[in-house]
């Protein structure tokens, strides 16, 4: 009893200390999810619902980020911090063509750039650190210290003031440059070198890292330990999945490797620390698809819950499997835990599972137990816990901590919870959950009853944000969908001819209260701090005022001078096929130039060919085909800056007359006249393209980089050691008509 009382007192003291540190400005957003509950809710905020990024109306300021941004902003102590890549090149010593992971710091008042933390890319490349992906970890800020995980899989502690305080804080004092534009590193812990972790990045999407959690003097980090580049073997099954560190020194206090050899892919979700029923708990989504709770001080296991039903099976690639891992962060609301499971966006759509759990229980609190044909318990297996073909069964668990779950309420696409990488937001007895397939769900926090769902017709990477009664859900098409928090769909939305709202299996003509186009995809989540809404698009950070205002003189103060961006039009959404299978947009990961040359050689390109690149990026394949072989080249790319860069580079290379680039979705491309087709796309995108590829005329050569065409036998396959990237690249050639085979996607 004394031990329990001491633990409670310790937790309360730590919580008060943390709140004092976090709450130096009560309206700050100092960590992922705003507070230790990880619940992205500002209950009494005044929410902006009208702004225009083109005119600057209601925009306090904006600042350019890198070319790809996965980090959610954090706002604390008068500063805004966001992880990105080096596409903007704020530091002279690292121009924008140098690939880095960057954490940028801006002044909260006006967006003025203050300093940058820079992490050079790992020499192992895609195995551990994907090109162009930057830092995708929202930092934890407490007073003048902050912690995050870099692209190099280092836990980093920085001084939030950088060198603006004219001090070099330690114990690390060996920074080569200590100018005010540089970060002041306090300490680092290399998870790979010092703890033997073999991290696996989430590939082309989302390349995120765990957001650090804290309790007292401790911080907690999920390590990313996972599979090798072949996506099956575990190089370090005994390495820790979770580490507890001393926040002041980085010293390891305890570790846990509960998933062991059952890690499915990677583990980059974020932990939650909470005092529940007198127990300080660290609640951790782990790489085997289980969520576990540990004693915050000792690391002792309290409870565990399997986020998958026992018969579900892991099958990598193209959305075919039913077993998922966990990329979302658990949320605490009124003593309950809410979380959904899913997979990396590049793996495609599939069923997900949203659950509400009772965290006061102990032991195995899964909804089911796995037993063999004789009723004997089966140790957990990596890919499938229960195989009914062997007479194995899943039995109801009498010790289950499941309060409710939502998987589906019917057979239709709109009736289902799909895979999700997003945390939920819970307020006023309602759960707002977004899934990767583009559905926004509103459910009862108490019972899980689904009141309504809306289909935004685009992938969703972001967590919803609730400010007062206003709900924000950004999507990958670059729109911010705004709803009213209400179980009544007619109050949550407004009338509009869409057929995209679903209430108990029936379509209704309701649309969001506002759909504000931002002309750039959202891969991070919105936050609200000190009366301001912060939105990080793919390449720009916006501070949106809560009160209407004219265009601010500081609208671009955080950026280096540049020309005015051309105006854009709001994306036109297709209303005819709302349940059409959609896939996320590919992140731009450039193919090394020596690999480009080998791809074109493998395709036997000549001057008589028309070479087409779907998702053509910066146009390097098109330009090389025209320049080296005299071929006609046509590309399809949805990202406007990349289209502009392609045209500029083609002109500079003297091949503008032979290179054409269309700004459009690659699935809308007309490829009927091409003779050579090149692809560097997600497996799920290759799968969606396959029916069209099978209809191409005979003799078309198709060359894919890294990913095979699913179920198709290649004519040739080779591995190339690139001198540019220092990595081994796989290339596959096919010729139409395509020949089928039984093969994996990845």
Polypeptide structure, described:
- The longest helix is centred in the N-terminal third of the chain and has 21 residues, at 2-22.
- The protein has a 7-stranded mixed β-sheet, with helices on one face.
- Helix 4 crosses helix 5 (620-629).
- 10% of the residues lie in helices and 31% in strands.
- Residues 1-24 and 557-580 have low confidence and may be disordered.
- With 746 residues, the protein is mainly beta.
- It is globular.
- It folds into 2 domains: 2-545, Methylamine Dehydrogenase, Chain H; 593-740, Vaccinia Virus protein VP39 (Rossmann fold, 3-Layer(aba) Sandwich), CATH 3.40.50.
- It is built from 7 helices and 49 strands.
- It starts with a helix and ends in a 6-residue tail after the last strand.
Question: Spans with pLDDT under 50 lasting ≥5 residues?
Answer: 1-24, 557-580
In which order are the strands of the major sheet placed?
43-42-41-44-45-48-47
How many helices does DSSP assign?
A: 7
User: How many domains?
Assistant: 2
In short:
By secondary structure, this protein is mostly beta strands.
List the helices and strands and how they pair.
Blueprint: H1 2-22, E1 41-42, E2 59-64, E3 74-76, E4 79-85, E5 100-107, E6 113-120, E7 140-142, E8 145-149, E9 154-159, E10 184-190, H2 191-195, E11 213-215, E12 218-222, E13 242-246, E14 252-256, E15 272-276, E16 279-285, E17 290-295, E18 301-306, E19 331-333, E20 336-340, E21 354-357, E22 363-364, E23 368-371, E24 393-396, E25 402-406, E26 425-427, E27 430-434, E28 439-444, E29 450-455, E30 465-467, E31 470-474, E32 479-484, H3 489-492, E33 494-495, E34 501-503, E35 506-508, E36 510-511, E37 514-517, E38 527-529, E39 532-536, E40 540-545, H4 593-602, E41 610-614, H5 620-629, E42 632-637, H6 640-652, E43 659-663, E44 676-679, H7 683-693, E45 701-705, E46 712-713, E47 716-721, E48 728-735, E49 739-740
Helix pairs in contact: 4-5
């Amino acid at each position: 009893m004394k031990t329990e009382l001491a633990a409670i007192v310790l937790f309360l003291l730590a919580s008060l200390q943390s709140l004092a540190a976090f709450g130096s400005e009560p309206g700050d957003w100092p960590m992922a999810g705003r507070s230790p509950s990880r619940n992205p809710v500002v209950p009494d905020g005044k929410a902006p619902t009208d702004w225009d990024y083109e005119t600057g109306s209601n925009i306090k300021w904006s600042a350019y980020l890198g070319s790809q941004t996965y980090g959610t902003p954090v706002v604390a102590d008068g500063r805004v911090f966001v992880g990105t890549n080096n596409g903007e090149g704020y530091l002279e010593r690292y121009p924008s063509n140098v690939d880095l992971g960057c954490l940028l710091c801006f002044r909260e008042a006006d967006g003025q750039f203050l300093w940058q933390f820079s992490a050079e890319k790992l020499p192992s490349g895609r195995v551990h650190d994907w090109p162009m992906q930057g830092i995708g970890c929202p930092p934890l800020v407490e007073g003048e210290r902050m912690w995050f995980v870099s692209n190099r899989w280092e836990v980093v502690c920085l001084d939030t003031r950088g060198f603006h305080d004219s001090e070099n804080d330690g114990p690390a004092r060996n920074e080569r440059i200590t100018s005010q534009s540089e970060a002041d590193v306090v300490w680092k812990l290399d998870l790979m070198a010092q703890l033997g972790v073999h991290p696996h990045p989430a590939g082309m999407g989302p390349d995120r890292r765990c957001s650090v959690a804290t309790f007292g003097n401790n911080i907690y980090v999920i390590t990313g330990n996972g599979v090798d580049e072949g996506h099956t073997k575990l190089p370090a099954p005994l390495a820790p999945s979770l580490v507890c560190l001393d926040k002041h020194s980085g010293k390891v206090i305890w570790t846990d490797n509960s998933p062991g050899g059952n890690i499915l892919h990677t583990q980059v979700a974020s932990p939650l620390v909470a005092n529940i029923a007198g127990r300080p708990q660290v609640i951790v989504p782990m790489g085997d698809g289980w969520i576990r709770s540990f004693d915050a001080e000792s690391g002792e296991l309290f409870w565990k819950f399997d986020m998958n039903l026992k018969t579900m099976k892991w099958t990598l690639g193209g959305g075919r499997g039913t077993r998922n891992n966990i990329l979302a962060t658990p949320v605490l609301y009124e003593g309950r835990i809410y979380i959904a499971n899913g997979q990396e966006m590049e793996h495609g759509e599939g069923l997900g599972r949203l659950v509400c759990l009772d965290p006061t229980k102990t032991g195995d609190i899964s909804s089911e137990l796995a037993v063999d044909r004789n009723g004997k318990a089966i140790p957990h297996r990596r890919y499938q816990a229960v195989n009914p073909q062997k007479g194995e069964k899943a039995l109801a668990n009498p010790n289950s901590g499941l309060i409710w779950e939502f998987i589906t309420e019917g057979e239709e696409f709109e009736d289902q919870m799909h895979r999700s990488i997003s945390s939920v937001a819970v307020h006023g007895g309602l759960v707002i959950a977004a899934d990767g397939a583009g559905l926004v769900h509103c459910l009862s926090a108490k019972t899980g009853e689904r009141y309504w769902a809306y289909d935004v017709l685009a992938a969703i990477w972001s967590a919803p944000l609730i400010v007062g009664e206003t709900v924000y859900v950004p999507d990958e098409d670059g729109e911010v969908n705004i709803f009213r928090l209400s179980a009544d769909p007619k109050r949550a939305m407004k009338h509009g001819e869409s057929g995209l709202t679903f209430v108990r299996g029936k379509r209704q003509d309701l649309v969001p209260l506002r759909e504000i186009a931002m002309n750039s995809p959202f891969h991070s989540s919105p936050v609200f701090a000190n009366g301001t809404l912060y939105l990080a698009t793919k390449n720009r950070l916006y501070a949106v005022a809560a009160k209407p205002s004219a265009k601010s003189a500081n609208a671009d103060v955080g950026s280096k001078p540049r020309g005015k961006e051309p105006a854009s039009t709001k994306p036109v959404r297709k209303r005819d096929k709302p349940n059409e299978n959609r896939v996320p947009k590919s992140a731009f990961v450039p193919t090394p130039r020596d690999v480009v040359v080998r791809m074109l050689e493998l395709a036997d390109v000549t001057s008589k060919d028309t070479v087409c690149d779907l998702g053509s990026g910066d146009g390097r394949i098109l330009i090389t085909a025209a320049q080296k072989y005299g071929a006609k080249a046509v590309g399809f790319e949805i990202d406007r800056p990349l289209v502009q860069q392609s045209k500029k580079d083609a002109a500079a290379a003297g091949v503008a007359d032979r290179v054409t680039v269309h700004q459009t979705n690659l699935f809308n491309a007309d490829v009927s006249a091409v003779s050579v087709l090149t692809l560097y796309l997600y497996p799920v995108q290759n799968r969606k393209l396959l029916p069209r590829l099978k209809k191409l005329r005979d003799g078309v050569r198709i060359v894919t980089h890294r990913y095979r065409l699913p179920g198709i036998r290649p004519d040739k396959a080779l591995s190339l050691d690139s001198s540019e990237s220092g990595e081994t690249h796989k290339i596959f050639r096919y010729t139409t008509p395509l020949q089928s085979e039984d093969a994996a996607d990845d």
